[in-house]
Amino acid sequence: KLPFGNCRNCAGVPSRCGGRPNMKIPGPCTCPAPCHGWAAATTDPTVLRSLEWARAWGEAAAVAYHPGGAGLTVVDLDNPTAIAWAHEALPATQTVTSTRGEHWIYRGTMQSANAVRPGVDIKSQMQYARWLGPGAGTITELPEVVRALIVKEPSPARPASQTLAVPAAPGGGECRHRTPAFLERGIAMAEQRITEAREAVHATVYRTFLAVLSTHGRCGCLSDAHVARLFAAAQAKGESPRHCTDAWTNARTRLGM
User: Fold this and answer.
1) Of 256, 211, 255, which is closest to residue 230 (Cα–Cα)?
2) What percent of the chain has pLDDT over 90?
3) Where are the domains of the chain?
4) Number of CB atoms found within 10 A of residue 187's CB
């Protein structure tokens, strides 16, 4: 949790540069180049072979990398519950076993964010992830459902209808559900996520709608009954029918549906 500095002035005293105490984010650095955390990432062989880095390799308890700099995004899953959610909600990709869970690695970059849902962090731009080996599986493109995890709810749209039976999608796309149980589990998990929200209910409802539509909304299998279940869960948390419709409309607009 305390990355090495990569210059003589900061070696052993990384807080000298003015960064935050845990140095995950570099401060206003007066060194020739930013030298801590993700900003220390380099592929320069001259730097990597220098005496200072030789010392770092010898003393480091672990090695990290900058996913965003490598064109990657890491979904950091910290516990079995988070891993189970990923298997249900995310497309398969390269996975690496971590100390407490797994890292799911996708091709593409995005803004990093912590605690996007229980036990789930996003590590990409301006963040580092521990290097735990090559893992297993084939890396795939960063899906919209991951990007949606950090999206803040936009200003509500003004829909023409206040009814619960909002069309989910025009249909006609390729069905990814494989079995009816896949869709049912996805709806049940979405209901649970809304029900368990303890704060930021508006944003949670929007992000959940966005995730459901991203995964289940393009082939026409998502029915009005499924949508009504999601709306009912949101209203049980105090959301109005108007807000549910707004959030659903905004989610569809975001996905171009």
Assistant:
1) 211
2) 24
3) 14-61, 68-142, 180-254
4) 19
